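dumping this here before i forget
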Amino acid sequence: MDIDSFLDREMGAQQKGKAEPEASGEAAALLSSIQYLLAQKQFDQIEASYDSLWKKVSQSGFSWDRSLYDELVTIHGQIARETAPAFQDASKRIQIMRQMVAQARTLLSARQVDGAAKLQNEVAAMMAEIPGLFFQEKKAMEKEVLRLQRDVHDAQSAADLQKVSMLQREIMQQSARLRPFLLSGNVAAATQQYARLLSLYQQLPPGFLGIKLGLGREMAEMYKSLAIQQEIERLRQQLNPIAQRRFGALQQPSHPVAERHRRQARELLAGKEYDAALAQVNALLSLIPDDQEGRDMLERIQAAKRVA
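structure:
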């Protein structure tokens, strides 16, 4: 006679005529719950139900119940069979994630930070899909992902600093190119240059407000000067030809002085003395903002300085 038959015979006699213990009914409910969770593949919730099942068994006073024992053995086998494919799938996913982490580190070594960041985000998304019952495997993978996140963040920070430094220099150079057009009243050229300046500013990444404020002060003054000159130009175009001539006469207090600046600018430009020529051209245009020759000379000087 085996031990199960012995227990069935002995315990059956003692239990005869007695109602089934309450704990056994609760255990049966938990078994049904586990079977449902297995069918739905809700593995994260199975462990809690499985632990509760053994808690109910311990509360039953350990009185022998053959049907409960059979159910325990059966549910144990079901859990093992149902979770085996999930373990295999998780192992495959973790292997793929490790390959992606290695690829991301290769990209970091090649300073391809954006590509590494994209892979890092994909790995993090895959990590969130791994069920919590694979604690050890998931924890080990999480450490690798966290190290990768830290390295990607450091690389992004270094790239942002380099980008900001480069853009800051370009913005300052663009501001220097813009100032002569504002001083000479060349609205069209100033507008074009200011648009380039704003385009550079908008490329600055977030997180550098101090630098942006430093650049913004001068950009605001340039905006004010450009807006005033645009308004003056708009009003001037609305005037009739007679009014334009009168307005021009009022803006030209000393034509002889302007002509002297013109002659000196020509001579200096011919001698390739660009800095001195620029000063004479700016003086000429301050007296006669619409002087076409002055504007032509200004553009020639700026082109020559850029080449130099």
